[in-house]
Amino acid sequence: MTGFTITYFAVRGRCGAMRIMLSDQGQEWKEVVVTFDEWMKGDLKKTCVFGQLPKFEDNGLILYQSNAILRHLGRKLGANGETEREASLVDMVAEGVEEIRTKYLKMIYQEYETGKDAYIKDLPNHFCKFEAILVKNQSGFLVGNSISYADYSLFEVLLNHQVLSPTCLDSFPSLKKFVEMMSARPKIKTFLQSDAYKKLPINGNGKQ
Ligand code: 0HH
């Protein structure tokens, strides 16, 4: 019996990948939704180790930093590579995904109007790296023969980018196949069709 709780704002944001991962792994979790007004009071912020959300609780263990949470779940749920060597490669690839996510969030929150077109134009320079990883690995996953937290993270980033630019994967057949394969996993498919997922905007400022 697990006791997972996610405390976060009413957006997919930095919890998108962990929710997809928990669903696919057949886990249940509780959501504590923080409103803008509650957050602005400042009391909760003061208790957060880095002054930010998400906060993740696992039977008394409290974690912050979305990628640390993904890694924790990867280790706990067996989605972290099958060997120590693979686990290191999973971390490496996940850091590469984080670089795209960070650039995406900067564009969305700071320069959507002025930077969106240039951002989309530059995407192939980032996507080609992940295309090459998938072509080399051949299993359909980023590392080894089993799904890892890096796969969930990349999948969620790509879903968001397909909203930003529906044709952005057209030159990347392996990435396109990867998104199709992940989307077709039964528990992910059910989650992506759920109100819990659909009702949440991708980002907190209405841009996507
Ligand atoms: N490195 C951290 C991580 O990966 C970054 C966390 C972070 O940026 O976990 N947290 C932001 C919220 S994510 C935060 O706590 C961006 C979504 C913003 C949506 C806000 C919607 C509010 C409306 C209800 N920001 C608050 C702060 O820094 O005070």
From TrEMBL:
Q: Which GO terms describe its cellular component?
A: cytosol; mitochondrion; nucleus
* Residue stretches making up the GST N-terminal domain: 2-81
Q: Which GO terms describe its biological process?
A: glutathione metabolic process
Among PROSITE patterns, the record links this protein to:
GST_CTER, GST_NTER
Which InterPro entries does this one have? Glutathione-S-Trfase_C-like (IPR010987), Glutathione-S-Trfase_C_sf (IPR036282), Glutathione_S-Trfase (IPR040079), Glutathione_S-Trfase_N (IPR004045), GST_C (IPR004046), GST_pi (IPR003082), GST_superfamily (IPR050213), Thioredoxin-like_sf (IPR036249)
GST C-terminal domain location, by residue? 83-202
EC class of this enzyme? transferase
Q: What is its EC number?
A: 2.5.1.18
Name the catalysed reactions.
RX + glutathione = an S-substituted glutathione + a halide anion + H(+)
Reply yes or no: does the keyword Transferase apply: yes
Name the protein family.
Belongs to the GST superfamily. Pi family.
What job does the chain carry out?
Conjugation of reduced glutathione to a wide number of exogenous and endogenous hydrophobic electrophiles.
How this chain assembles, per its entry, is: Homodimer.
- This chain belongs to the protein called Glutathione S-transferase
